């Protein structure tokens, strides 16, 4: 939208007919994911794989605007204040989901050597850039549902039960649908999910205790140090994945 405080991305068209874009959530902060009605609705679309309609503003005169009906899109990812959307239908057929901002930034790599693709402007790339160490996958609806059921619908560290800010986090990095298993998942509050993906947080595979990087121990996150996040069966079924993540955490933090 023109003259808006929100920074929506431009539409990127691929030669295979698929289009993608980023959309700024309503509101400018993490708290608005829960506060704003529109954001709660979009979150449900993300969780339940429900397409959304995309309208592109063409002209604004006073309070009146004209729009181009772009079509249906899937909500593939939500990082920070932005959502990744991609065409739900191309050439009359359902299109494969793109899933993440990382995918949007690299989507043309496979076809760039064989065909002409619209270039992504530098400012678009800047708006989308997410640190490569963060692979923010909300996962498939089934993966999320399984984690909610397995872990009683609460963040294993903070105890938060607000579904709108809970993520089905992968303990080991996402590498395809085979990663979407209970033994490789945790239910985490969004900010704690980010710390996990940045190797600033880990759960000890033997004790289930929370460890936080030294650089964060004087912050609010220091209060989680030593808490028991997992125990019993929940710890046991995730132990192998936690061991791999623990080794990575130790290397990254110099333990």
TrEMBL record:
Residue span, HNH nuclease domain: 155-204
Example of a GO MF term: endonuclease activity
Keyword ATP-binding assigned: no
Organism, as annotated: Actinomycetospora atypica
Source organism superkingdom: Bacteria
Listed EC numbers: 3.1.-.-
Lineage: Bacteria, Bacillati, Actinomycetota, Actinomycetes, Pseudonocardiales
Keywords attached to this entry: Endonuclease, Hydrolase, Nuclease
Protein name: HNH endonuclease signature motif containing protein
One Pfam entry name: HNH_2
């Amino acid at each position: 939208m023109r003259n808006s405080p929100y920074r929506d991305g431009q539409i990127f068209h691929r030669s295979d007919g698929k289009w993608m874009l980023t959309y700024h959530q309503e509101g400018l902060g993490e708290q608005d994911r829960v506060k704003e009605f529109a954001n709660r609705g979009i979150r449900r679309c993300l969780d339940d794989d429900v397409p959304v309609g995309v309208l592109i503003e063409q002209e604004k005169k006073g309070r009146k605007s004209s729009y181009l009906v772009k079509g249906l899109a899937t909500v593939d990812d939500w990082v920070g204040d932005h959502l990744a959307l991609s065409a739900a239908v191309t050439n009359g057929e359902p299109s494969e989901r793109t899933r993440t901002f990382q995918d949007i930034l690299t989507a043309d790599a496979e076809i760039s050597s064989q065909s002409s693709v619209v270039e992504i402007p530098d400012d678009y790339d800047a708006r989308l850039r997410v640190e490569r160490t963060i692979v923010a996958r909300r996962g498939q609806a089934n993966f999320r549902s399984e984690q909610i059921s397995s872990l009683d619908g609460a963040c294993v560290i903070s105890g938060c039960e607000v579904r709108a800010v809970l993520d089905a986090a992968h303990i080991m990095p996402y590498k395809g649908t085979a990663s979407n298993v209970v033994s490789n998942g945790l239910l985490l509050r969004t900010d704690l999910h980010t710390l996990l993906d940045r190797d600033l947080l880990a759960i000890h595979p033997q004790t289930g205790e929370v460890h936080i990087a030294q650089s964060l121990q004087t912050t609010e996150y220091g209060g989680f140090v030593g808490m028991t996040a997992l125990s019993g069966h929940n710890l046991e079924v995730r132990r192998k994945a936690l061991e791999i993540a623990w080794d990575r955490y130790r290397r990254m933090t110099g333990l």
